[in-house]
Request: fold
Amino acid sequence: MKTVTGDLKKSVDALKKLLPAEDILTFSFTADKGQQFTCVFADAITDKELLGEQVVRALRGFDGEPKAKNVAAKLSSPETKTEKSLQTLAEETLAGNPVLLFEGMDEAVIVGTKKVPVRAISEPSTDVVVKGPREGFIEDVKTNTALVRRRLKTGELKIETVEVGRRSHTVVAVCYLDGTSVAVAEAVKRKLQEIDIDVVPDSSYLTHFLASRPYSLVKQVGTTEKPDIFCAKIAEGRVGLLVDGSPIALTVPYLIVEDFQSSEDYFVPAYRATFTRLLRLFALFVAIYLPAFYVAAQLFKLQLFPIKLLLTIAGSIRDIPFSPSLEMLLVLLVLEVLNEASIRMPKYVGMALSVVGALVLGETAVSAGFVSTPAIIIIAFSGIGLYAVPNLIEQTSVLRLAMLLVAGSVGTYGIVLVTAFMIFYLVTTENFGSPLVAPFSPLIGRDLRDSVFKYDLGSLETRPRSVGSPNKRRLK
Amino acid sequence: MKKISARQLYFFLACVAPVGKLVAMPSQLAAAAGNDLLFPAFCQYVLQSLAVCAVLWLATKERTLGELLENTFGKVVSKILLTLLSGFFLFAALFPLLEQKLFVQSAFYDTLPSLAGFAPFFLFSAYLCAKPLSSFGRAWDILGPIAIAGFFGVILLSAGEADYAALLPLGAHGAKGFWAGLSQICAWFFDAALLLPLIGNIQPERGMIWKGTLFYALGGCAVLFFLAVFFGIFQETAAGQLFAFSKTSKYFSGITVLGRIDYLFIYALALVMAFYVAMPLQACVELAVQAYGNRRVLAPVLSVVLNGLFLLLLLLIDYRAGEVGDTVTKTLFFLFPAFALAVPALCLPLRRDRRERA
Reply:
């Protein structure tokens, strides 16, 4: 391991050799007593104004013994540390922390004057609320930990950092409450340390490594962009992960019921929250099953339609050249394409796209006899229903397609079998010791109070048993 | 996966087990015992409840059947007995599969589909069979409420349409009718035997024996009530009404306006039934694993082979399914009480340790 030597020039050269990039700059200055200093820093991510203020100005009058501790004490920066290893110094420089080297000393001082360009805190577009906090996480892990600290002002909140990524050295902050979720936190840290990947551009990369069934369609790690939800989950006994460069925080253990809950449910009366949660569940079922049942009923079991509806449907599909399953697949495909395009397109084009989608594709396709009106109504209803639970879109849209294919080939019995398979698969999946479908399976009566039902806050005196926290009581 | 909890077992006994008796049994019973159909069913339930009680008593020992047999008879005899019991489940699996196949073809399709419509069941069953029995407990937690919703939905839509006076006069078919009914429904009553592979995988709790028996009896009451509704609706024509629970609710007055909404409940029960029908095959695989070990290899291989064989068998007897079913219910019926009643009774001494006996 190469280390800093007493020879300033040699040390700087060695460090520059490790950091050959053009944006790594050096700045040398001399103290009043003639002591030579050299500062190595990364151009775009170092606060040069702060560097001048806290380092250069502070060391102008330096006249002490040339020891790293003395120099560090003289600096007006609250964030300093000393280091010998050139490799570590190089990593710190790349992280935005300037390295201060000086003549005659075999140690360097690292100064915390990082300045990474960050966007302002804003309301996340994926989780909008009418009532409740509007702050959202941003891409900077330090800002995000500050948002968490602001809500959990307790010494029991542990924030431990782990670096993941051979090249990206992405900082992952593992947040948990001491005495509440230590075992899970240890397991999470162990898993993070085992990850051997070059770059971690986003927190979603980590979900693969944290899942017990990584190739599964089923979501196994919770996600949120809101610090209030993140803190509430930590308070329930979960472990949260903030990943530098990502506004999406992760939480484990994850229960599928979490995605049917919104932060707003806790700010409105319990009966209203229960109603909206049941509505979300209903919407999701309709979104997944309605197109499949419509196709299966048309192909295999016409009795499922009331007679008047059957006559209406018969009238609309009379001239359609495609089979019901193909017709539904086409409409679904168009919806998915429109959806994908509207997400990626610039906002001003989005309006035009809506017009094209709704009028040109919808209206014209019906009048041209390509697709029937009921098919469009059903897919539209299904599309809206899917967005009632936005965090499960990736999974449910695939499931809807699978159901549709099975319904078109095997009929309603196929739908029943896929459902049975899904139930068995879900109940046998667990992550970090928590069953995915808890508190329904295994049935935990007390946890049902905050599941798809929502009891009054006064009734939620314990932490969810599904999460498995040893510290059970919340409300005294 | 943890052990099956006592609560999950109650869900199975009260909600999942009765579902298998709602399809073809009512019409078979009506054909044999006419308006006295409740008596043979009641008698079967009493006998099965006793057997369930015995198996639950064995389960409190927290050792698998294989371990209990080995402790008493040694390795070789234990393997032979487990293989024999596994063979029974292989035989017992055939009838529910035939029943399910005919039910699916009738209730899920307007026109008779090919076997291909039912074939995907074997994929599902193979997946289930490859998993350890303990994972079933979690499924019962979900299936219990689904079965309750399905059953109450069907009953709600049909109970009002029944003429319960049709069950009178009691005893009109005499002892002959009673005996015919009792023997012909044996093929539906082997729930106690189904519990045998589960013992050792159940986490016992205080009072589990009487609670379990009570829950099984509650499930029995629901089936008896359904039988009364069924006969009250169809009366003399009940014997011809195969797949009873998919037919009783179709006379509900709201159906002309709403369509066959009763199918939602029927499909819910069919979902539960898919799990129940796969259970004998899973019990067969589990006992083979207990006898010969090596779960990682044996369980998936046996699951695929057995389900593949049954698919082939159903393909071969596709047009003779009715006759095969009749052979099971009318000729080979004695095998069911032999294994479902006698085996649990004979297993009772296994609960005592060899050391205790000495």
Q: What stands out?
A: The mean pLDDT of chain A is 87. The first helix of chain A runs from residue 8 to 18. Chain A is about 45% helix and 10% strand. Chain A touches chain B at residues 300-307, 309, 406, 410-417, 419-421, 423-424, 427-428, 435, 437, 440-443 (CB under 8 Å).
